[in-house]
Amino acid sequence: MPEVITANRLIDGIVVYLASDGSWAEDLALARVAVTEDEVKALESEAAKAVAERRVVGTYPMAVAVDDGVPVALSVRERIRAAHRTTLTEDWYDVPL
Amino acid sequence: MYRYDEFDHAFVRERVSQFREQVERRLAGKLTEEEFRPLRLRNGLYLQLHAYMLRIAIPYGVLSPRQLRQLAMIGRRFDRGYGHFTTRQNLQFNWVKLVDIPDILAALAEVEMHCIQTSGNCVRNVTADPFAAAAHDELEDPRPWCEVLRQWSTLHPEFSWLPRKFKIAVSGAVEDRAAVAFHDIGLRIVRGPEGENGFRVFVGGGMGRIPYVGQEIRPFLKKQHLLSYIESILRVYNLHGRRDNLQKARIKILVNQLGIDKFRQEVEADWEATRKDAVDLPASEYARIASYFTPPNLTPRPIKDDGVDQRRITDPAFAAWLKHNVRTHRVPGYAIVTISLKEPGRTPGDASSDTMDLVADLAERYSRNEARANYTQNLVLPHVARADLPKLYDELARAGLATANSELLGDMICCPGLDYCNLANARSIPIAKEIAKRFSDPKRLEEIGPLRLNMSGCINACGHHHSGNIGILGVDKKGTELYQISLGGSPKDDATVGTIIGPGFRAEAVPDAIDTIVSTYLANRLDGEDFLATWRRIGATPFKEALYGAA
Questions:
Q1: Which residues of B fall within a CB distance of 8 Å from A92?
Q2: Could you report the predicted ipTM of this complex, rounded to two decimals?
Q3: Do A10 and B98 touch (CB under 8 A)?
Q4: pTM over 0.90
Q5: Is B6-110 in CATH node 3.50.50.60?
Q6: Which fold has domain B135-291?
Q7: Which of A28, A53, A93 is best to mutate for the B interface (most B CBs within 10 A)?
Q8: What is the pLDDT of residues B414-469, one digit of tens each?
Q9: Are B278 and B218 spatial neighbours (Cβ–Cβ below 8 Å)?
Q10: How big, in percent rounded to 5, are the helix, strand and coil portions of chain A?
Q11: Looking at chain B from residue 427 to 486, which residues have their Cβ under 8 Å from any Cβ of chain A?
Q12: Does residue B44 come out as left (phi exceeding 0), alpha (psi in the -120 to 50 range) or beta?
């Protein structure tokens, strides 16, 4: 199953994904997708480097579906994380994305 | 309320500067996350699903207007303009940045607040009756004792590394409004054989994966021995409590494995051996602390007020609010007002910074500078003159804070669940909102009567589902959220753990299931029977048949 690497940004805790250009993006659509074992290993070693450089914390690989080349979260938990917001419904307070 | 002395001020300021330095070292790479985590948790800082979360202690739920305004400021400046009141009478900010935490802690210290002991395996924020010093059924104000326990337990060297977290609640009233029986130690102030007040001590209650109602370890403890006796309970737990299994490390497991009689023997033996040397509180120190809790000097007023009576007749919404959210005060002519944070459509327990500012203003103008947070995630104004009720109601109603649902089905306890929490398995907030929508008709709520509905998004039970008359527990079943319903729980004097009624429901089916349960109750109840009484009389079968069909 295709995978991406996700984490929380150290400085503010916001959910991020390791992107194709090597940055950590808030948008899951920009995440680099790994399919083969070697690709997953490469992502993991880059993630370990980012932890050492204090850019992110709590990295882990997460399974995704790839829809038209774009990674999409599968579990409810990861869908909520990818949405960067809470109740997935209109709320009385305005939660800026 | 309690005012910091020089020692408290110096101690909290020192903690802030220590943590400032620790954050700097983390950001500079001198501390790894593994090294930093225990330090941040000791200051109430968690890393949750979307961001860092800061849990602020509100000792025994008491808030001054100055503190509320500072919390509002923190919400605006460092978060997204709102916070979440919890079932431990605490406040959580959900979107704070690591780099801002030292400034937030400094802002809290300015108003005598902090985040110490809101996390970790120590004695957590001591909770109390939210109607303390106002309730007509109160024997004695529990708050000075909570403050005594807070000071005694803060950084207590023997009890800083307990097997697990430890929760204490104190009530000084006849009615239990603090869920005392569901605490590691529950204290009820009672009248003793010689007419003096003392403590009835319960031990081993708790929620979580394995819920227990606390058991009585001592029917009467003289007040002056509180610290030495609690110290003995904690010492026996600290020595014998399991540390190998997180799920089995709470005192409730130890008490139930040993049996209450054996546990009592151990505690009494330790107490006999140590109490002569133990530092029980000198009467003068108790008097010093208690002096901070001198109730406001309220002059009795006429109980009847024409303005209130007229409005009650002409305005049904006001009449409903009066009936459900306003309680009798012990001083004639005054009332205790519950400010509902459960307007349908809102996240239960959330309060915007504007709300916090407004409640601060209202506390100043109508409630002798006091507000409270209760464990059911609402706010309370404890000392309101009855004649002021119409004006207060209008101001609350304008802000959407006058929903007349206190202790009714709409007054749900709801944990943050999978919308915020890293431990959660399922969402709870959207389910609560859907249920609130289904039961938004005040007439229907009124017809149903008192009903406690509690919901948790995982087995840790922060949403107290075990003690709900109706309890909902979200679980993860193969990647799908599933909701187990239990019935018959109670957090009060007749404390009971609810019974799981059958297989779980998918999210979209939960409001229908609650509707079916409520309809079954209404069809079966006798005159004057509340939900719990009907459940206890007719048992599970009619509810099971209604939910799942006849077997």
A1: 343, 345-347, 400
A2: 0.90
A3: yes
A4: yes
A5: no
A6: Sulfite Reductase Hemoprotein; domain 1 (3.30.413)
A7: A93
A8: 999 999 999 999 999 989 999 999 999 999 999 999 999 999 999 999 999 999 99
A9: no
A10: 30, 35, 40
A11: 427, 429-430, 433, 476, 479-481
A12: left
